[in-house]
Amino acid sequence: MDQRFKDALNFRDLGGLESKDGRKVRCGFFFRGAGLAYFNEEELDEFKKLKVRTIMDLRSLAEIRTIPDPMIDGALYIQHNGLVVEGSEDIDWSPAGMRKIGGAAERQLEQIRGYYRTIAFNNEAYRIMLKEIWERHVPIYFHCMTGKDRTGVAAMIILMALGIKEEEIRKDYLLSNLYRKKILEESLADIETEAKGHPELKKLITIQDGVAEETFDTVVNAIIGKYGNYDRYLEEEYGLDKDKREKMKDFYLE
Description:
Radius of gyration: 18 Å
CATH class of the domain at 7-83 and 119-179 and 212-247: Alpha Beta
Number of helices: 12
Oligomer: single chain
CATH superfamily of the domain at 7-83 and 119-179 and 212-247: Protein tyrosine phosphatase superfamily
Strand order of the largest sheet: 1-2-5-3-4
Number of strands: 5
CATH topology of the domain at 7-83 and 119-179 and 212-247: Protein-Tyrosine Phosphatase, Chain A
Strand content: 5-15%
CATH architecture of the domain at 7-83 and 119-179 and 212-247: Alpha-Beta Complex
Distance between the termini: 22 Å
Structural class: alpha/beta
């Protein structure tokens, strides 16, 4: 963990993750985490030292109006909601919605699975992000509210484009549970008694304050189910053909 930033910010550099050909992502290009509004003054000072060139805010306009990012001198700020997928508006992401039990919880979980089955497709926010990365407008910092859901899928797609091993992509995705361990444990402790008879409640709380491995698999299986492999997915969704992907790897891997 980066000691410059509190764990709850879920902040990390994707550098060091290993590719299928044995190379590693170069450090200092790809940063992910929570909204900059949650950084204190000292953390913002440290963030500025990273010389981030592009900030990709994946939150909705409503979220941004509630908790706007502070502006960082020298960085291009891009906002595009990564949540805009079919059916997402029907999901109750509120605390009450994520504390359902029984049949209501199962319906909520199925809606969430449907959301993750579609988030990686026709997502303009991710297309904009990949375009910035292809054009080398880096370092880039991409974030949503807590840096785990929309941000987690964004990181998956970047790492797929760089040919990173799937186990490494999975490891990065699940790291959000380590960074947010205290928050997640407190929430699970709060519903411990009720969850003994309702395991579906524990699933919802894990999704609310952490990440579920099932979610990672849902995204991956949807991509493979539609396109057969990551290469075709990246070419069809983002225009990243083999030549472009190789050029990206040569620049971003070492």
